[in-house]
Amino acid sequence: MYALIPPLALLAERVLGYPQLLTGRIGHPVMWFGWLISYMEQRTNTPVRSARQRKLAGIVSLALLLIVVLVVAVVVQRLVRSLPLGWLLEVLLATPFLAQKELGRAVEAVGDALGTSLAAGREAVSHIVGRDPQTLDEAGVSRAAIETLAESTSDGVVAPWFWLVLLGLPGIVLYKAINTPDSMIGHLNDRYRDYGWAAARLDDLVNLIPARLSAVLVTIACFFIPDASPSRAWGAAMRDARGHKSPNSGWPEAAFAGALGISLGGPRHYDGEMVDLPMMGKGDRNLGRYHIARAVSLYHMVLTVLLVVSTLLALAIALGG
User: Fold this and answer.
1) Where is this chain's protein located in or outside the cell (predicted)?
2) Taking CA 194 as the corner, what is the angle to CA 98 and CA 244, rounded to the nearest 5 degrees?
3) Where in the chain does DSSP place strands (E)?
4) CA distance 213 to 154
5) DSSP three-state, residue 190
6) CA pair distance 216, 236, nearest whole angstrom
7) How far is CA 274 from CA 75, 277, 307, in A?
8) Higher pLDDT, 245 or 303
9) Contact 203, 279 (CB under 8 A)
10) How many CB atoms lie within 10 A of CB 34?
């Protein structure tokens, strides 16, 4: 039954999500990682230290986090596997580390907010992106939402699933313990450039295969979505992904852009500074609510394709074993 944990975790999280009651009472596992990262960063990433010392402090802090998380995950897995129907409990323990339901809801909320006003759209998108929302027009808000959806399809869904399949519960937990520091401290600003170096590089490494797999899944999903083009999706990924500043983010972004016949990327503002990023896709840039809705539809089809692939893989492993 352990082979069925990945597809069952995908299905359970897509339907149920993470209960808001639990978030309010005990937080979310990713929040726990964040608290530990913040605690260590505030005490070790001090301005009086040299760049080399801050880089070393970041490496040590990341290693401590991963060791703690790995030990806890292995112990918990062994405990639940000693229980009757422990595999079912393991399914439930894996679900918080997938982000299917909340990601789709958050991006849909941006489209709904744009239907009210541009100001509401800017407010909604500010919860899921790091760029300055007040500089965005309707097309900019829409691009930001779709880019986040594409990138998070990879690092919020496909990558944790991949590591769950490969290494079980410790794999998916460890992946999120790597991905969370990258989102918090893996930035190229004065505060984090050195301290977050290890977190950013390790996150790049663990996402190399999932990012490219995400582009494949988007391409397959296009066969089941009217007006989505598999050839454009794969062609854009092969052509544009390597031009992205990230070794991984360009793959799902370019695939989404090509699939939908739109263009993502380009200039945007971060902390008051203009950053000019390469274009992903060669289509329309005058985007709006309609394009967000199409992107969300494509996203849900990607989730369905992933669930089918995961189920077939689990059955092959079970029958082969």
Assistant:
1) Cell membrane
2) 55
3) 264-270, 273-280
4) 8
5) coil
6) 12
7) 47, 10, 39
8) 303
9) no
10) 16
For residue 267, the 8-state DSSP code is E
- Look-up: residue for tokens 């794969």? 234
pTM higher than the cut 0.85: yes
The whole domain housing 222 covers 2-320
The letter for the amino acid at 5 is I
User: Do the Cβ atoms of 65 and 36 come closer than 8 Å?
Assistant: yes
Cα 133 to the center of its chain, rounded Å:
20
Largest Cα–Cα distance of the chain, in whole Å?
59
Number of domains the chain is built from: 1
The string of DSSP letters for 209-250 reads HHHHHHHHHHHHHHTTSTT--HHHHHHHHHHHGGGSSSTTTH
Burial group, residue 321, by CB count within 10 angstroms (0-12, 13-18, 19+): exposed
**What is the residue type of 230?**
P
CA-to-CA distance for 158 and 164, rounded, in angstroms? 10
pLDDT digits (tens, 9 = 90+) for 83-133: 998 999 999 999 999 999 999 999 999 999 999 999 999 999 999 987 788
